[in-house]
Amino acid sequence: MIQKTLDVSELPPFSVSNDDPLWWGQMLMGVIEVMLFAIMIAMYFYIRLSVDMWPLPGDQLPHKLLPTLALVPLALSFPAAWVASEGAKQDNRGKMLAGLGLNLALAGAFLAMRIVEWHSFNFEWKADIFGSVTWTILGLHTADIIGDMGFTLVLFVIVLTGKYAQKQRLGVHVDSIVWYLVAGAWFPMYVVIYWGPTLVGAPR
Amino acid sequence: MTPIIEAPGETVDPRAGTNEEHRKKLERAWSRPGRIFGFFTATTHTAIGMRYIITAFAFFLAGGIEALLMRTQLAFSNNHFLSADRYNQIFTTHGTTMMFLFAVPMMEGMAVYLVPLMLGTRNVAFPRLNAFGYYMFLFGGLLLYAGVLTNTGPDVGWFAYPPLSGPQYSPGKRVDIWAQMITFTEISALCVATELIATILKMRAPRMSLNRLPLYCWSMLIQSFMVIFAMPAVMVASTIMLLLDRTVATHFVNPAAGGDPLLYQHVFWFFGHPEVYIIFIPALGFVSSIVEAHTRRGVFGYPAMVLALAGTAFIGFGLWVHHMFATGLPQIGESFFTAASMMIAITSGIQIFCWLATIWTGRVRMHTPMYFVLGFIFIFVMGGLTGVMLASVPLDWQVHDTFFVVAHFHYVLIGGAVFPLFGAFHYWYPKMTGRMMNETLGKIEFWILFIGFNMTFFPMHILGLKGMTRRIYTYPPEMGWDNANALATVGAYIIAIGGILFIANVLSSRKTGAPAGRNPWDAGTLEWAADSPPPPYNFEYLPVAAGRYTMWAPAEARAVVTGMRDDRREVLVTSIMDAEPQHRLVLPGSSFWPFLTALLVGGGFVGTVFGFNWYYPTAVAAGVGLIGWFWPKAPRDLRP
Amino acid sequence: MSGWRKGIPGGMLAAGVLSTACAGHQQSALDSAGTQADRIESLWWFFLAVLSAVFVIVIATLLVSLTRGHRGVNQEPLERTHVPSEETERNLGRTVGVATGVTIIILFVLLVASIGTGKELSEIGGKQNSLIVEVTGNQWWWNIRYLSEEPSEILTTANEIHIPVGRPVMIRGLSQDVIHSFWVPNLHGKRDLIPSRVTTEWIEADHPGRWRGQCAEFCGLQHAHMALWVVAETEPQFEAWRHAQLQPAAAPQDADTQRGQQVFLNSACVLCHTIRGTSAAGSVAPDLTHVGSRLTIAAGTLPNTKGNIAGWIADPQRIKPGNHMAVVPVKSEDLQPLADYLESLK
Amino acid sequence: MRGWTAILCFLALTACQREQRNLRPSPARVVIFNDAAREDQIQPGGAQSMPQVNNPDEGNAYDVSEGQRLFDWYNCSGCHAHGGGGIGPPLIKTEWIYGGEPANLFDTIVKGRPNGMPAWGGRIPEYQVWQLVTFIRSMNHEEPKAATPARPDTIEQSPQTLQNKANGVTR
Questions:
Q1: Given an 8 Å threshold on Cβ–Cβ distance, is B259 in contact with A46?
Q2: ipTM score here?
Q3: What is the CATH number of domain D61-148?
Q4: Cβ neighbours of residue B261 under 8 Å, at least 6 residues apart?
Q5: What digits encode the pLDDT tens for the residues B173-184?
Q6: Residue of A nearest to D153 (CA)
Q7: Of A120, A74, A82, A117, whose CA–CA distance to A99 is shortest?
Q8: Range of the domain at A101
Q9: Nearest C-alpha of chain B: how many angstroms from A59?
Q10: B190 touches chain A (CB under 8 A)
Q11: What residues of chain D lie within 8 A of the CB of B149, using their CB?
């Protein structure tokens, strides 16, 4: 019997790039997160438009200074993530460590500033709907940041101990994708939470 | 482009040794460890898919028993078979079970089983995520039924509208269990959607360009995208709005503190309406597959079918408001949503017309699957037409929340999803078990189900118009609803008989059915190139697609892939559009971590029913599980 | 009454089963008694006619395609290649295209009809001389108030709405607790009653009669027993009713009902119920000032008879388990006078 | 089969007090047990022994929620506000004038107390008194958290928030 064949033995058994299904998987997980945040933002505006006064009587707007400053480390973390992902593609351990480490430090700074900022809120989530929706958006996003920081930390440890191969490099690469999405999602939410009440409707 | 060459000698791939040796090595690489511990480490898609199917079917039976209990209670007026409290728990559990524990997981399970076979690959892209998703689904279902059996079953309807479901009007943990059960099943659905998209886009057989993708895979691709866009909404509704309100006193649904019960409805139906299409789009894929095999030609109008599927999915997100016409929204908005709701009839119509055209010009073979397809067309068209009625705002004001709606969505969901599903069971049963199902019994099943179905649900249209509202546990005799209700109850028991016959057929055919061979229906798609039942590695040599229907292509046009290693779990990654081979991919083997992680996360979620603080240990447990899951076992260098 | 209803041959699809379910017209969307319901019913028969025709055509095509035997269409080539001839495919394409076009046209016609009816419905009402009735949903009964500029003309009752024939009535919907839905199918479609919102709906009866309505949004345990009656009367009858309802409760006329009143006023009844003209001024349960004049008790659950009243007081949780009427300690010898008294409150 | 029976038995056992819903409370009767609780137990001389009276609704979520409704319906909030106190003493506290055990609360509601607390005995049925008692105890976190609703559908803010708002300051 003559059997026609297509020989793939020359093809590499891995690919640290966007061709790997894992990249697609992470991308889709990111889309799920972004969808979640999009619905939360839609909710925020729906609620905003259904009440006369925003924030509700007695609540004070969150201060803008600290969260605005916190954008700086967040913005700087993008190039850090990029360095790590380039390092992963080039199999450059130093670059990976530098990128991951820097990313962790910057994300940590951002997180610390956010937690400090929480102490300036005069409203609880159980105060009224303003408190509920603001705290929930912040809480969800913080959970995401912490989750991805955990992911990054584990990769950092793996690369540091040298127990890594192509799979782990691919992990570093897709970690950056997740970070872009999680950190990037914050910018519109920042505008909504801190500037939205001022820009839409009369400020108090 | 990798060229296709002719195999040099007797064996397909000299590097792999003889075919026998090759098979043995593959078998070793793809098998899970045996016995009990090994059972929880399975990651092959056929094993996980089969577990999904069996578990979802068990929940289907549970939901069916609940339906019989309800029908018995409603058989005549002023019946005292069930108490109001019990009835409310049962109808809520019935709806929740059928939507979240039967329909969606069943469709996911069928896809997990079939899609990699149809694509000509060996597993899904993320085998461990697949196993994790299954266990989450299982634990979610067990949580709900643990609640039901301890008199803690949810009693607020499968939509759980606040304020009724809020902290003030639903004491106890009934609603919390419901809300967290949703989280379990959502996570499961999202896992499957993610891996199916990655698998369909990146792991197709070489040369299976997108315009050669079987329609069933198209339907699963589109359905998976719908899952990804729709499911986050129900998480916001149930896990954030409802559960946080109930456990940590936020005010999302509290009208007194600025919250809005209608906001919950918007978010819920933004998920809830696409959910219907999430259930029913895979069924359209079943129908296309069955029609192709039984008319012995490809479905007419392949591009139109794909566009219609995509259109259905797209429009499906734009008509959630037609569930809320009675809440008194502005008229202009209502007109928009009426138009959008009617548009869905165009895309559905196109598909019906294409199938009719296929049957018209094909050579029809009347096997049981085809009976179910014809039953589907009959029932689904009627359900679709009553759907057009519901899209009209004034008509909706009259029939909304009545038995007319109950009739409508059972026509759409049972007709549109369960009938094709039964057809699919009969159609792919030989692939899954290696034996044919009994044809005579199959046809008897069909007629009993078809007659029982129409007897149960057709009278409900009239009941609805005659003023019978939904979700009432009893009604007074002077309403004149007794006869139609009695008829419906008899019909429900007839359906049950059909179901029992089906189970009998499945069980007896496993032993006595005629051996099926690889391609008993002479169908065209790639799953029929594998052994029946498929070995854990599916294909000894991965197939190369030769047109839309490789199995119908002449033998000289077909080819297989060589050069894959058979001592580890290798699959082939191909490009998105043209499916050109890009690289090989080593999939992880059997693993206990998905089960363990699901156990830890699931246990934590059960805790969150009782207190928010459980989220913290849950997060830590999830972290531990995931780290164990992904921790490199040894510095593995993936040599070619 | 609509012309369509007579024009359609019996609602082809429905005819068979209709005959088994023809009793009870007091709560039916197919027996319209008001301007609004009438419009909707006409629209319904129009939709039913058009869509039934579509259904018949589709199913007929399906059956014909099965019985064709598939002889004419290049049988052999299909068997071998699984591909029909190009000409066949072209013809099919044309047919499917036409069918899709026809579908779009039909849907467009239905859309226009639907929106037209919706627009008409929104324009009915708001006329002079209209009546405003505030309906507040409670678990599981309806509080009814007739609003008026004059505070002395505001009238409170429960579970029963009287309306004058031919006069538009605005139903102003509120809710005290969870979401309910006001639905009297013979008069109009349903409208949800949502806490913290006000919804409105216009009804207008075109002949005298009594129609039953029911809560249509699941509202908890006793959702099934949350009905109300709408009584449409001629203008003079309505005015007489309204006038009578505005009066304080009738004083007890004999020793028996006097005793009943004493029992009422000295028990927990007064914590929840009001009887105007007495010291009973509870505000969380139905106003009982003229309870004797109503058709039913317990939100349409029981006919209003003395026996039912006594049974309801003695054990409301047997009749409607979980409802919010307390199981009030009333001595058995007090029960009869109490029921007599309440029944006398015409 | 035996396995299933065992599982069902186990589940039946776990059907806990919290989730029971007694929709047909026992026939309306009023028992004022005179010695159940005594005012003088907190008076000089120390507590006397008192008969053990158990709250039948202890830990039951449905009864807490019924109590919440009745608290509103019988206008308890007219004097006690939502537990914060007004004309009457606050109900969220640690020090009870007449004792804070279920039996004491039952006694207080049934008999009334000087300075304005009316006697509800004979007016509302016994089962509702227990529901009120259970709700009042839930306000003080003396009922299991899982049986206590997180919030009612009203504006109710934590004392801390109210204080912050009143001061108009940011911490």
A1: no
A2: 0.90
A3: 1.10.760.10
A4: B161, B162, B163, B253, B255, C179, C194, C195
A5: 999 999 999 999
A6: A128
A7: A82
A8: 65-200
A9: 12
A10: yes
A11: 8, 11, 15
